[in-house]
Amino acid sequence: MADNHTENTPMQPIILSMEVDDDNSVESYYRVQIGNHVKYLVISPATFDTDTLSTPLQSLPSLPYDKEWTVVTISRDQTTGQLKTSFLNRPLPGVKCQWHHTSINCLELKKTKQLTLAALEAVSHSMLPPTLGSSSTMIAKIARFDWEVPRIEHETRAYQLLEGHGLSPPFLGHIHENGRIMGFLLEKIEGRSASIQDLSECEAALGKLHELGFLHGDVNRYNFLVTDDGVKLIDFERLQGGADPESISKELEKLRAGLVDESRRGGGFYRVGDDSD
Length: 277
Description:
Alpha-galactosidase A, six-stranded mixed sheet, Kinase-like_dom_sf, 29% strand
């Protein structure tokens, strides 16, 4: 049993995501975990210097994290120099396309690797399908902030449309935060990014998508995963319907160019020095 001092110790906020303006000319945004909840901080321009914006928690005024609010805006009074806070308890937008029977709390996911700003590898012991091991890694993709929700909405719908066709990694469920859907989970499948040597296999996989009446919309080499079970497509943020012969031909032309592109566009995070000259 914890002693009284431990019980009365306030929970410390943890920054989960942030979008910081390097020029300090527009607002900076933070997604913060406090206990079992997530709240959002908005810091107005010129409130702190740019270095402080990268690690702002120690410079913030005392905030009532245990109260009912979702967003706080922090600014500095230009006359007095004092910090000001403005709280909102508005509902945050969420993904409406909730088609899968499984949904997991974002705070139950343990990040093992950051892939992009909004995608990560993660494990969870609370909702693993019987086909996955107890420590299996999954791919989580989330909307960190309001403006990213439409992108996740579109891709969630795309996976619903492609369910059962074997073109993409299995969709494992939705991710929710404080009850609202804001992401999804995919099974992590082993493979490598495609190259020009895989052109015919990639054309075949893309052709199956075209047969369903869809265009992928972003045929860079990192969106084609070469696996033991053939080529799988990922990243359907730009999936669109209405594929006709002309648009299909253009996308196939873009595929060849995408497979020889070494710019790492679409490749996510990587360490300096990963690519050889």
